[in-house]
Design brief:
There is one protein chain. The chain contains six helices and 14 strands. With 285 residues, the chain is of the alpha+beta class. It is elongated and about 120 Å long.
Length: 285
C-alpha cells in the first residue's frame, strides 16, 4: 500500500509549500492596484475633467414674461458653458438686476446641474404717465420699482395685474424720463411698501378707492388724498397710511353722505379725528 502513494521532490521542498500563497497574494495586490488606479481615474474624470468639458445642464424655474432662453442670457450662461465656469453669485446678481425679477437664486449641483429659481415682481399700484408720446399705465411693486409699462407686445405672455390695483397720482414730474426698472425717490418708497402690506391683508379695500394722490408739501414731506369711488369727497390723510386709518376715513365718508346737500368737500383724518372741511366752514367729528 505504501507503493500507491508517490512522493515528489517538489512536495517535499518547503519553497513549494510557501510559493502557492505568495503567488496568490501577489495576484491580489496587482488586482487591488489596478482597481485603485481605475477608481482614481474615474474620480479624476468626474471631479476634474468632466465638469470642465461637459456643458452645464440648467433647470430654470421662471414665470410668464421671462422664458428660459432669456433668463439664461441674462445670467450669462450659454449652450457651451461648463459647470466649473459658472459663477453662481454673479449669475444671481445679473438675474436680480432684471426689471421683472424680484429675487433670484442660483444653485450648483455637482457634477453638471444648475438650478435657477426666479420670483417675479408683483404690482401693488399703478400710475399713468406719458411714455413714447402717449399715456400709458406704469406698474410698481412694493419696492417702488417700475417693472411694467403699458401692455401689448412688450408684456405678451405676462400675467395681467389685478384689476383692483390702486391708482397713485402725483408721482411723476413734468417730462420725467420713465423706463422699466426705474426706482422712485426715497421719499415715496415707504408708501408703496405700505400699499403692499395693506393689499396682503385686505386687497378689497382698494375697490372703494379710485385714486391715491400724493399732495407734496416741502422737504420731501407729503399728504395723501384718497378719492372714494364715484364720489367727489376727498379723504386727506398722512403719508403713513394703514388699513385701519383707511377704514376710519371711509367710515367718516359714509357719515358725510348722510348730510344731504351739505356734503363737505374734504375729510381730514391726519390727526386721527375726522375733521370735515366745507367751503363755508371747518368742523370736527
Amino acid at each position: 500500500m505504501l507503493g500507491d502513494f508517490i512522493y515528489s521532490e517538489e512536495m517535499e521542498n518547503p519553497a513549494y509549500a510557501a510559493g502557492t500563497p505568495a503567488k496568490a497574494e501577489k495576484t491580489a495586490k496587482r488586482f487591488l492596484l489596478f482597481a485603485v488606479i481605475f477608481i482614481g481615474l474615474g474620480l479624476i474624470w468626474i471631479l476634474a475633467i468632466s465638469p470642465c468639458m461637459v456643458p452645464v445642464r440648467a433647470d430654470v424655474r421662471s414665470f410668464p414674461g421671462l422664458d428660459r432662453k432669456e433668463a439664461m442670457a441674462v445670467a450669462g450662461i450659454g449652450s457651451r458653458t461648463t459647470f466649473v465656469s459658472v459663477n453662481a453669485g454673479e449669475a444671481e446678481l445679473r438675474l436680480a438686476g432684471h426689471h421683472l425679477v424680484d429675487s433670484a437664486k442660483v444653485v450648483k449641483r455637482f457634477p453638471d446641474r444648475l438650478m435657477i429659481y426666479l420670483e417675479p415682481r408683483k404690482a401693488v399700484a399703478v400710475a399713468f404717465a406719458r411714455v413714447n408720446g402717449r399715456t400709458q399705465p406704469v406698474y410698481f411693486d412694493r419696492h417702488g420699482v417700475a417693472f411694467r409699462i403699458g401692455g401689448g407686445a412688450a408684456n405678451a405672455g405676462a400675467d395681467a395685474p389685478p384689476s383692483w390695483l390702486p391708482v397713485v397720482s402725483g408721482i411723476f414730474d413734468a417730462n420725467q424720463q420713465i423706463w422699466p426698472g426705474m426706482r422712485l425717490s426715497a421719499a415715496v418708497l415707504p408708501l408703496f411698501s405700505r400699499i403692499g402690506s395693506i393689499s396682503d391683508d385686505d386687497p378689497n379695500i382698494w375697490k372703494a378707492i379710485s385714486e391715491i394722490k400724493i399732495a407734496k408739501k416741502q422737504n420731501d414731506l407729503y399728504d395723501l388724498v384718497l378719492f372714494p369711488l364715484h364720489h367727489p369727497i376727498r379723504l386727506r390723510m398722512g403719508s403713513d397710511i394703514t388699513k385701519d386709518s383707511i377704514y376710519y376715513a371711509l367710515l367718516m365718508f359714509d357719515v358725510c353722505r348722510q348730510f344731504g346737500n351739505n356734503v363737505p368737500e374734504e375729510i381730514d383724518v391726519r390727526s386721527g379725528i375726522g375733521v370735515f372741511n366745507t367751503k363755508e366752514a371747518r368742523f370736527g367729528e
